[in-house]
Amino acid sequence: MYRYDDYDRALVTERVAQYRDQLQRNLAGELSDDEFRPLRLQNGLYIQRHAPMLRIAVPYGMLSSTQLRKLASIGRRYDRGYGHFSTRQNMQFNWPKLEDTADILAELATVEMHAIQTSGNCIRNITTDPFAGVAPDEIVDPRPYCEVLRQWSTFHPEFAFLPRKFKIAVSGTLEDRAVTYAHDVGLQLYRGQTGEVLVRVIVGGGMGRTPILGSVIHDALPWKHLPTYLDAVLRVYNRYGRRDNAYKARIKILVKAIGAEEFARQVDAEWQLERDGIATVTQAELDRAAAAFTDPDAPERPSTDAAFDAAVAADKAFARWVSRCVRAHKRPGYRSVTLSLKPTGVAPGDITSDQMDAVADMADRYSFGELRVTHEQNVVLSDVALADLHRLWQEARSHGLATPNIGLLTDIICCPGGDFCSLANAKSIPIAQAIQEAFDDLDYLYDIGELELNISGCMNSCGHHHVGHIGILGVDKAGSEWYQVSIGGAQGNTTSLAEVIGPSFAAEEVPAVVKTLIETYVEARTPEERFLDTVRRVGMAPFKSRVYGETTKNAEAAHG
Amino acid sequence: MADLIRGNALVADDWTWVRLPESSEPVRKSAGKVVLFKLTGEPAAPEDVIAACEVPAGKVLLPLSVWLKRRDELAVRADAGEIGVWLDSHEEPAELAESLGDNLNRLPVIGVNFPKFIDGRGFSTAFLLRTRYGYRNELRALGDVLRDQMFFFHRCGFDAYLLRADQKPERCIAALRDFTTPYQTSTDGLPPVFRRRVGLGAPA
C-alpha cells in the first residue's frame, strides 16, 4: 500500500492548517457562509439536514487496518459510533460538529488520510477496481497509475474551480469493474503488442440528470502521457464547459454539444503545448509507485484445502457465503472475500465503529492488514488463505458482516437520501430496507440470482440507479416523494443505461413493484438467464404491462 | 480602495483599471473568436459603449474590447508603455495576441478578471499567457481576488494581485506560501514532485 513520504506528509499537514484558518474565519464571521462554502466543499464538508457531513477520501478504495481503526475512533468520538461507505469508495460521517472538523482532519493526517477534493467543483477522488492486484483477469494493476494521478490531481492549481465536479475512474481488467463509461473520464489500461501499457481514454460519461455513456477520444495513449493529456482534457473543459447552469455544466454536456470527435481534436491541439514536457511521467516514478503495491509477502499455499472442502460440504450456510462472498484470486490457495454491509435493517454501506475495529482485526489476522472499499459499498479483504476462510466467516458472522448476498437483489447500492442529504428529493434508505424485507427468503433470493438494484434519492444519481438492473429514483412531485422505476441498466463490459418503465410510484408501492418485476422475470427466463439477460431478450413490454396491468391499475391516472 | 500586491510586496498601484459601464441590454455573443461552445455566449459591450469609454491620462488597464476597437488611436500611448489590457474570464488570449502581432510582451501589464472566485477560467487563461503566448511582463489578477486562491494564482503565472477591497494584504501575502511542496509542475518552473524526490531527480 502507498505510504506517504515527506512531500505527501507536508502537503496534508499544510492543508489542515489552511482549513483550520478558513474554519476559524468562518466561525468568527470574517468569511461569509457563501464564500466558505466552495472552500469547505473542497475539504469534503457539506452542511446537511441535521449536521455537517464530512466525506473522507479513501484513494482508489484502499485502506490499512490502522486507518480503519482511526476511522472507528473518529466515529466514536465525533460522530454517533458509525460511518458510511459511499459509492465513490469514500467514508462519510453524518453527525460531526462543524467546530470539530479541523481536529478530525488533523487526526486523519496522523494516519495519512484527508478529505481533500472529496467534494466541490474539482477533480474528485479517483476510483478503481476493488480487486486490483489480486483479480485473475487483471491485465494491468491500476493502482500505481491511480497514485500518479492522485498526485497530479491534488491541488492542481489550474483546475480547482471547474464548471462542475470531475470524476475519474481507472480499470485494468478484462471485465470493467470501475464503471469507466459512466465517468467524466474513464481510463482503461491494457497492453499493446509489445507489452507496453496503453490507455483508452473515455470522456463525457456520467449519470445525473442526463445519463450518457462516454466516448473514446484516444484509443492508445502511452501511460507516461496521462498527466499532460488529462491537463489538455481539463483545460478544454475548464475554458468552455457551461457555467451558467449547474445541470448542464458537466463535461458530458460539452462533449455532446460539440461532438466527441471535435472534442478529441481540441484536446489533441491543446495537448501539443505540454506533450513530452516536464510533466511527462518517468519510469522511475511509476516504479516507485508500483513498489508500493507489491503482492504481500504471502507464503505459498496448496491450491486446495481438505478442511475447507469438508466445511463447504457440511455447512450449507458456509457454502452459501462462499458462493456469494468469496472470489477467485490470482495466487493458488488464496481468495478475496467481500464482507457485506447490506444486512436487512441497516442502511446500505453503514458500518459501526465496533465493526470497523473488527474488520481491522480480521484484516490484520487474515489479509496482511489491508482492505478495500467497493463502489457497491461493501468491504473487501483481498488476500485470504483458503484454509482461513471458515474461521474468518465465523468471525465475520459474529459481527454481522457475513450476509451471503453479494451480487444478489438485497446487495442494494443506495445513497444516503432524504434522511441525511439536503439535495435529495426523497428518502432512499427506507425503500432499500422495505425491499430487503420483502425478499428475506434466502432460497428465493438465490433462485432469483444475480441482480443489481440501485437506489438514488435524486437526479444526482449517487446511488447509480441508471446502471442498476433495476434502478429506483426518488422524485419530487408537488412536494411529495415518488419513485421512478427503471430496468435494464448494467455496469461492466456491457454497460447500458436503464429505461424507465412508466409513471412513478408511492413509497409503499415500491416493494410490490419489485416483486412483480421479479415474478415476470422468473416466468419468462431461460435456465441460464439473469434478470438483466431476460430484460434484454424480451424487452420492456412484458414487465411494463405486468406492473401497470396488475399492481397499480390506476397508476397513470392517479399520479401521472 | 483595493490593495495591490506585486511579487510578494504591497505596492502603490500606478495603473487605472478601466471598466465599461454595465450595459442595460447586453449583446449576447459567443465566447471569443475561436468559438468552441455556442450554447450560452457571454455579454459583449455594444459599439457605442466602447466608443464612449473614457480613457484617462496616465497608465491605464483597458478592456480587451476597447483595445481591439481603438488601438489605432491608442498606438502612441501604447508605444509609451501606458497601455495595459485586461481579459474577462470568457475572453480569448488568442485575440489579444493577434492584435499585437503575436508579441504580447509589447504590453507591460495584462490583467485577467475573476468576476466570481468560483469562475476558474482565469487560471487557464493565465497558464496559456505564460506558456503558449510566452508573456513575461506583469500578469495581474483582478476582481474577486481572495487569499484562499493566492497559491493557485501564483502557480498559474500571476505575479500581481489587485485584492478585493475587504482582503487583508499581509494575510494574502502569507497565503502565497500555503503549501511548500506542490505535486505538479506549473508556470513557476517547479518540476513535478516526482522529479524532485531524492534520488529520482533524473529526467525521463
> Which structural class best describes the helix and strand composition of chain B?
alpha/beta
| Terminal CA distance of chain A | 52 Å
Count of β-strands of chain B: 10
Binned strand content of chain A: 15-25%
Bulk shape of chain A: globular
Q: What do these coordinates show?
A:
The complex is a heterodimer of chains A (560) and B (204). With 560 residues, chain A is an alpha+beta fold. Chain A folds into four domains: 6-109, Sulfite Reductase Hemoprotein, domain 2 (Alpha-Beta Complex), CATH 3.90.480; 142-289, Sulfite Reductase Hemoprotein, domain 1, CATH 3.30.413.10; 306-398, Sulfite Reductase Hemoprotein, domain 2, CATH 3.90.480; 413-559, Sulfite Reductase Hemoprotein, domain 1 (2-Layer Sandwich), CATH 3.30.413. In chain A, 37% of the residues lie in helices and 16% in strands. Chain A has helices spanning 6-27, 33-41, 65-78, 101-109, 143-153, 226-240, 251-258, 260-271, 283-291, 306-314, 316-325, 353-366, 389-398, 429-438, 442-448, 510-524, 531-538, 541-551, 555-559, and strands at 45-47, 52-56, 62-64, 82-85, 91-93, 127-128, 168-171, 185-191, 197-203, 215-222, 326-327, 334-339, 350-352, 370-373, 379-385, 413-414, 453-456, 470-477, 480-487, 499-500. In chain A, a hairpin with a 4-residue loop joins strand 1 (45-47) and strand 2. In chain A, helix 5 (143-153) crosses helix 9. Chain A is globular, with a radius of gyration of 23 Å. With 204 residues, chain B is of the alpha/beta class. Chain B has a single domain (4-196), classed as Alpha-Beta Barrel (TIM Barrel). Chain B contains seven helices and ten strands. An eight-stranded mixed beta sheet of chain B has the order 2-1-10-9-8-7-6-3. A two-stranded antiparallel ribbon of chain B has the order 4-5. The radius of gyration of chain B is 18 Å and the shape is globular. Chain B starts with a strand and ends in an 8-residue tail after the last helix. At the A-B interface, helix 1, helix 2, helix 5, helix 6 and helix 7 of A face helix 4, helix 5 and helix 7 of B.
